[in-house]
C-alpha cells in the first residue's frame, strides 16, 4: 500500500491539531483508551465534549497552554493509503520545527482561519513549503462554520492567497473549505457548502498523485553499508546496501562508482523480501556487482552517463537550528550529505532571507536560530549532489557540531559558486 507523508501548518489557533484529531476520529484510527484519555483531560478542562486537538498535542505542557510546540507525528491508514502526519508549530520561534517536520513531506496543508484570512504566518509557512519543494500544497480554509459557510468569504481568501502564491514556486495548489470542529469537508463532503464542487480533504489526500514526484530519471544509490556475511551459504557475497535516492536500477545496468570512477554492471538486487527485477526510490536494497571494486560507506553508485555534480564548493540555503550558537563565516562544522560525512568551512553568507516579507538582507553577517540564508561552503571531501530542486534526497544535508554531535543546521543545495 502506498504511503504519503504530509505536514500541517498554520497560525496559532487555526485548528491544525483539531483537524488532525478529526481525521483520526472520523477515519476510526483512534484506540478507545486514547479517546478515553482525551475525554478525561477535556472534562478536567471544563469542556462539554472531547477536544480532538488533544490527540496530537501529546506533551502535558502543550495541553496546558493550548498550543503545539514540538512536531507531533501521527499515523493512520485508510483502505487506499497509509499516512504519516507531521503536526508542526505555528509560532515564528519554532520555524526550525516546521522545517524539520516538513522536510520529507509529499504534501503540506496550510490552515487559514476563515475569519482572519491570510496572515503573515500563513505566508511564512507557504514560503517554507515552497523552499522545501513540497510538491503539493492544500490551503484548508478552516472554521467556515463561524462565517456561515460563506462562498464569498472563501473566494476572497482564494484570491488573496493565490496572489501571494504566484510569487512562489508551487506546482500544485488546492483550496478546500472545511470546519475541523464540525467535520465539514474533512472526511465527507458537506451539504452546508453546496457551492463547493471539489473533493473532501481526506479524498484529496487519498487520490492526489505522488508517485511521479520523486526523481525517477537520475539513478542514485548512496552506499550506506557493505554486507559481507562470511557464511558457507553466502561465502563470496559482497553487497552494497542503501536507500535508492533517485532513478531506477535493474540487474544488467551499467554503473559507475564515485569517487573512484570504476565501472561495472549490476549482478542482482536483493531486498528483505528477496531479489527484485528493479529498484526505485525510496526502496532499501542491497546491490551486487559483476566486478570486485573497493567500495565503502559514502560512495555513490550511479550511471556512467548520468552522474551527479561533484564539488568541494557548494552554495545552499541553510536554516539554522541551533539555539546556543550562530552561523558565521569562518565556522568549521561537520557536514552529513546522503551517507557521506566530511568537514566544512563556512566561506560566506550572501544574504539572510526574511521568511515573512521575502526580503533579502545582503548586509547580514550571521544566521541565528530559525533564520534562513544563502551560504557558501567548502568541504574537505567532494560531495556528489544534485540541485535540491531536482532531487530532495541528494540535494540536502545537515550541519553538525563536531564537539557535541548536535545538529546545527539543515541545507538545500542550490549549486556550485559562480
Protein topology:
Elements: E1 3-10, H1 16-26, H2 32-44, H3 60-65, E2 72-77, E3 82-87, H4 95-102, E4 107-113, H5 120-131, E5 136-142, H6 151-165, E6 172-177, H7 201-207, E7 220-222, E8 225-227, E9 239-243, E10 248-249, E11 254-258, E12 263-271, E13 274-275, E14 279-280, E15 284-289, E16 300-302, E17 309-320, E18 332-337, E19 340-353, E20 360-361, E21 372-385, E22 396-400, E23 407-415
Parallel strand pairs: 1-3, 1-4, 4-5, 5-6
Antiparallel strand pairs: 2-3, 7-16, 8-9, 9-15, 10-14, 11-12, 11-16, 12-13, 12-15, 17-21, 17-23, 18-19, 18-22, 19-20, 19-21, 22-23
Q: For this structure, what is the CATH homologous superfamily of the largest domain?
A: P-loop containing nucleotide triphosphate hydrolases
CATH topological fold name of the largest domain: Rossmann fold
Describe the sheet with the most strands. 8 strands, antiparallel
pLDDT below 50 for ≥5 consecutive residues: which ranges? 59-69
Order of helices and strands: EHHHEEHEHEHEHEEEEEEEEEEEEEEEEE
Strand content: 25-35%
Write up what this structure looks like:
The protein is built from seven helices and 23 strands. The longest helix is centred in the middle third of the chain and has 15 residues, at 151-165. It has helices spanning 16-26, 32-44, 60-65, 95-102, 120-131, 151-165, 201-207, and strands at residues 3-10, 72-77, 82-87, 107-113, 136-142, 172-177, 220-222, 225-227, 239-243, 248-249, 254-258, 263-271, 274-275, 279-280, 284-289, 300-302, 309-320, 332-337, 340-353, 360-361, 372-385, 396-400, 407-415. By secondary structure, it is an alpha+beta fold.
Amino acid at each position: 500500500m502506498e504511503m504519503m507523508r504530509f505536514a500541517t501548518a498554520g497560525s496559532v489557533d487555526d485548528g491544525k491539531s483539531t483537524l488532525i484529531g478529526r481525521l483520526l476520529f472520523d477515519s476510526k484510527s483512534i484506540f478507545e483508551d486514547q479517546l478515553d484519555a482525551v475525554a478525561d483531560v477535556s472534562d478536567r478542562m471544563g469542556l462539554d465534549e472531547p477536544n480532538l486537538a488533544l490527540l496530537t498535542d501529546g506533551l502535558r505542557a502543550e495541553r496546558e497552554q493550548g498550543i503545539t510546540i514540538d512536531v507531533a507525528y501521527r499515523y493512520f491508514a485508510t483502505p487506499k493509503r497509509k499516512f504519516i502526519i507531521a503536526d508542526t508549530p505555528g509560532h515564528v520561534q519554532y520555524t526550525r520545527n516546521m522545517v524539520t517536520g516538513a522536510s520529507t513531506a509529499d504534501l503540506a496543508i496550510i490552515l487559514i482561519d476563515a475569519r482572519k484570512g491570510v496572515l503573515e504566518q500563513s505566508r511564512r509557512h507557504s514560503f517554507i513549503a515552497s523552499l522545501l519543494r513540497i510538491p503539493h500544497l492544500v490551503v484548508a480554509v478552516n472554521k467556515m462554520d463561524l462565517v456561515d459557510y460563506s462562498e464569498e468569504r472563501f473566494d476572497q481568501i482564494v484570491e488573496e492567497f493565490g496572489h501571494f502564491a504566484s510569487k512562489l514556486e508551487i506546482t500544485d495548489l488546492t483550496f478546500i473549505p472545511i470546519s475541523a470542529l464540525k467535520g465539514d469537508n474533512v472526511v465527507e463532503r458537506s451539504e452546508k457548502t453546496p457551492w463547493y464542487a471539489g473533493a473532501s480533504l481526506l479524498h484529496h489526500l487519498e487520490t492526489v498523485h505522488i508517485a511521479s514526484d520523486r526523481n525517477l530519471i537520475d539513478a542514485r544509490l548512496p552506499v550506506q553499508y557493505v554486507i559481507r556475511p562470511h557464511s558457507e551459504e553466502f561465502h563470496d557475497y559482497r553487497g552494497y546496501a542503501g536507500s535508492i535516492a533517485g532513478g531506477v536500477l535493474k540487474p544488467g545496468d551499467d554503473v559507475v562508482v564515485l569517487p573512484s570512477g570504476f565501472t561495472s554492471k549490476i549482478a542482482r538486487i536483493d531486498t528483505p523480501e528477496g531479489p527484485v527485477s528493479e529498484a526505485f526510490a525510496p526502496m532499501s536494497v542491497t546491490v551486487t556487482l559483476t566486478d570486485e571494486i573497493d567500495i565503502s560507506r559514502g560512495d555513490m553508485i550511479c550511471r556512467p552517463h548520468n552522474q551527479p555534480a561533484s564539488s568541494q564548493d557548494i552554495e545552499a540555503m541553510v536554516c539554522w537550528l541551533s539555539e546556543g550558537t550562530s552561523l558565521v563565516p569562518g565556522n568549521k562544522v561537520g557536514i552529513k550529505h546522503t551517507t557521506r560525512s566530511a568537514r566544512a568551512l563556512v566561506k560566506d553568507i550572501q544574504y539572510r532571507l526574511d521568511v515573512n516579507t521575502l526580503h533579502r538582507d545582503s548586509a547580514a553577517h550571521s544566521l541565528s536560530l530559525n533564520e534562513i540564508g544563502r551560504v557558501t561552503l567548502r568541504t574537505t571531501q567532494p560531495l556528489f549532489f544534485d540541485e535540491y530542486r531536482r532531487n530532495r534526497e541528494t540535494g540536502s544535508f545537515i550541519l553538525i557540531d563536531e564537539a557535541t554531535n548536535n545538529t546545527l543546521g539543515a541545507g538545500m543545495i542550490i549549486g556550485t559558486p559562480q
